[in-house]
Specification:
Blueprint (H helix, E strand, L loop, with lengths): L3 H8 L8 E3 L3 E8 L14 E8 L1 H8 L5 E3 L7 H13 L2 E2 L11 E6 L5 E6 L8 H5 L8 E5 H5 L3 H10 L6 E5 L9 H9 L3 E5 H8 L5 H8 L5 E5 L5 E5 L6 E4 L12 H14 L4 H15 L22
Parallel strand pairs: 1-4, 1-8, 2-6, 4-5, 8-9, 9-10, 10-11
Antiparallel strand pairs: 2-3, 6-7, 11-12, 12-13
Helix pairs in contact: 1-3, 2-3, 2-10, 6-7, 8-9, 10-11
Length: 323
């Protein structure tokens, strides 16, 4: 009798669509609930803990749950964290293209969560921080495929230059999406500029957009400051939805409202939005429909506790529709 991983993988039936190649490295989130952070040299008793795959896993899972083929193309290690990551990807039906590293394990992030939801992080990178040209040679994105890039990997001294060089030589038929993440200001300027020149879709939240644009603007005004950054720009605005321009939208500015929900955990909401957006585009949806689907997915995700709470395609059919 097949085990639960095999059953889950067999239950996935990807739609006829392009493939999303996820280059956002995956590590493990070790989350600890605390009544408050200890003073330096002190100690507190935790009230709960959980160990789950994080980082790029949230986006890859979001794509797969829309029944679109997803390939994880970044490193993964030998050890308990690498095993946890591979098992989780198998459950979601995400394929793995890179060879397992025998030189070390995948990294981890210790996250301290206080009662008001404030999170404090300490990250120990592992083998996922050392992407190689050999890893990237294992994938050959073609027309209709999407390559998803995370700013975290552009920051890493080993992965960043390799990834930037590879993207520069990528055939124009492949669609490149970049989510620079909260470390946008830590990506070396020349490296970021090179990647942006090859970026078809730049998606980021309001804070990240303001950091990149060096502007306190919001909404359409913030978009205007980023118009030259990539062909299409999407700024996620939390409970206000998102705004977008460029690409197939041309000079139009589209504002997509989010359905009203009671948020209980916003962890991974941006990954839900980006993953569903990319899956929708890969499946052939128009930009505006894809943005609406992604915004509804993120809204439903924040009503659930956990980092990888993106709904499935079937769960999204009627949720939050205004028509």
């Amino acid at each position: 009798m097949p085990d639960r991983v095999a059953v889950a993988a067999m239950s996935r039936n990807p739609r006829t669509a392009g493939t999303v190649y996820s280059l956002g490295s995956i590590l493990v989130d070790v989350t600890v609930d605390v009544p408050g952070l200890p003073e330096r040299g002190g100690d507190v008793l935790a009230t709960g803990t959980r160990t789950l795959p994080g980082g790029g896993f949230n986006l890859a899972a979001a794509v797969a749950r829309q029944e679109v083929r997803c390939v994880y193309a970044a490193p993964h290690g030998t050890g308990p964290y690498g095993d946890l990551i591979r098992d989780a990807l198998a459950v979601e039906g995400v394929q793995i293209s890179a060879e397992r590293r025998d030189t070390g394990d995948s990294g981890f992030t210790v996250t301290f969560v206080e009662p008001d939801g404030e999170r404090t992080f300490v990250t120990m990178p592992g083998v996922e921080a050392a992407l190689t040209a050999g890893d990237l040679a294992a994938i050959r994105p073609s027309t209709g495929d999407i390559v998803s890039v995370s700013g975290y990997d552009l920051v890493y001294p080993a992965s960043g230059p390799v990834l930037a060089d590879w993207l520069a030589d990528l055939p124009r038929g492949a669609f490149v999406a970049l989510d620079p993440g909260p470390l946008v200001r830590q990506i070396p300027a020349e490296r970021l500029a090179r990647v942006l020149r090859r970026t078809d879709l730049l998606t980021l939240n309001r804070r990240e957009a303001q950091l990149l644009a060096d502007s306190p603007a919001t909404g359409a005004a913030l978009l205007e400051t980023l118009r030259s950054a990539a062909a299409m720009v999407v700024v996620r605005e939390g409970p206000d939805g998102c705004v977008a321009t460029g690409g197939a939208l041309g000079d139009r500015v589209v504002s997509v409202p989010a359905p009203p929900v009671r948020a209980v955990d916003t962890t991974g909401a941006g990954d839900s939005h980006t993953g569903v957006l990319l899956a929708s585009l890969a499946a052939g949806l128009g930009v505006e429909e894809a943005l609406d689907t992604a915004t509804r997915a993120a809204a439903l995700a924040v009503t659930r506790i956990g980092p990888a709470t993106t709904p499935t395609r079937s769960e999204l059919v009627d949720f939050g529709r205004s028509d």
